[in-house]
Amino acid sequence: MADEPLVLGIETSCDETGVGIVRGHTLLADAVASSVDEHARFGGVVPEVASRAHLEAMVPTIQRALKEAGVAASDLDGIAVTAGPGLAGALLVGVSAAKAYAYALGKPLYGVNHLASHICVDQLEHGPLPEPTMALLVSGGHSSLLLAPDITSDVRPLGSTIDDAAGEAFDKIARVLNLGFPGGPVIDRIAREGDPDAIAFPRGLTGPRDAAYDFSFSG
Asked: d(Cα 93, Cα 13) in Å, to the nearest integer?
């Protein structure tokens, strides 16, 4: 395994600074710095606050990941970084840091679509993906149905949210009801104590549409 590539990955698409180090398909380190507490008083993620938090956390988080993996920066064979989608300012911090490390170390730099990475990471746990792969992606800012004949070069969106992703809808509901941030965990907990038949909600997106695989969570 020592001859497999050693890659450092940086993820800053939203409110968490994530740094991972892999050798081949083996995860050696996973360091995360969250700024969720800084956003809680606003009831949601504030892009400018997230960007500043990434800037402050970047170098310490990378150093923590290198220490956890037991490697030096000079041992790396490449740098990967989320190039999108995400918050523009937050992405800028991650991409700038990745460019700086790649330039200083003389290593190749790889920009990565983090939605495709959500699918790829399954390989670390379960091995190679079947070809083609269809994936349902549900994250804080994205709900998507993706067809991936080739995860490295051919990822096709079949459907996505037309308004807010599930995580965004949870946060907005929690803010209106003064339940705190993030909204998903507390709403999930309270919902278990409620009556599922109390309100007859209509079924959404049941009519004829051009994009039959789209989602809607906020109305």
From this structure: 10
